[in-house]
Write a structure and sequence with these properties.
199 residues; mainly alpha; 9 helices
């Protein structure tokens, strides 16, 4: 990961991310390319937050929407882990679009949740943002994004994974390690259970 591994571009809370996304939603049609232009191609953490937030909205009921967001989360996080300075996405993803009105409505539905998370943000568990631990949140986002298309038909699974990516990204954006630990706790419990059965 590079020195510019935050890629926050002046964004320091979920409300900041929501406000910028809402600005993009004023268009009649919003493409992924429009979102990248609004946040900046080096803003890896905010760009992770956008599809993760949308997965926990009613938009996840659109067929294949969760899979698309999972692919997007995977591509963003894996390039961040690889140390790229700027995000690259294939044209077929950049051209995907959604109604601005529909996007705005989805953002309005989750705004109370994002405001609640912002109110509870503190600087905690700072060790998670130093080597080697700082690799864990983006690595987890990579895994969760890859799993979303595979779990498309499992009820609520994509929304749960999306919520975990929201917490991990929020943690990296605000440097509040508590939310990363909350997101990773179920993963640790599952891993412990599997190890207990196999060993």
């Amino acid at each position: 990961m590079t020195g510019n591994d935050d890629g926050q571009e002046g964004l320091h809370s979920l409300s900041d991310v929501m406000d910028r996304a809402a600005g993009v939603a004023r268009r009649d049609q919003v493409t992924v390319d429009n979102i990248l232009d609004a946040f900046g191609h080096a803003s890896f953490v905010p760009l992770l937050l956008v599809p993760a937030l949308l997965v926990v909205t009613p938009l996840s009921g659109i067929p294949a929407f969760s899979s698309f967001c999972g692919i997007l989360i995977f591509l963003i996080s894996v390039q961040w882990l690889a140390g790229r300075d700027h995000l690259w996405l294939p044209q077929w993803i950049l051209r995907r679009k959604i109604s601005g009105e529909r996007l705005g409505d989805a953002l309005d539905r989750i705004r109370p949740l994002t405001l609640r998370l912002d109110r509870h943000m503190r600087k905690r568990f700072g060790f998670l943002f130093h080597p080697p631990f700082r690799l864990i949140p983006p690595l987890a986002c990579t895994v969760f994004g890859a799993l979303m298309p595979l779990l498309e038909l499992v009820p609520f699974s994509s929304s749960l994974l999306g919520a975990a990516v929201v917490l991990l990204s929020f943690s990296m954006l605000t440097r509040d390690g508590l939310f990363a630990l909350i997101a990773l706790l179920p993963v640790g419990a599952v891993a412990w259970a599997i190890a207990a059965v196999l060993l």
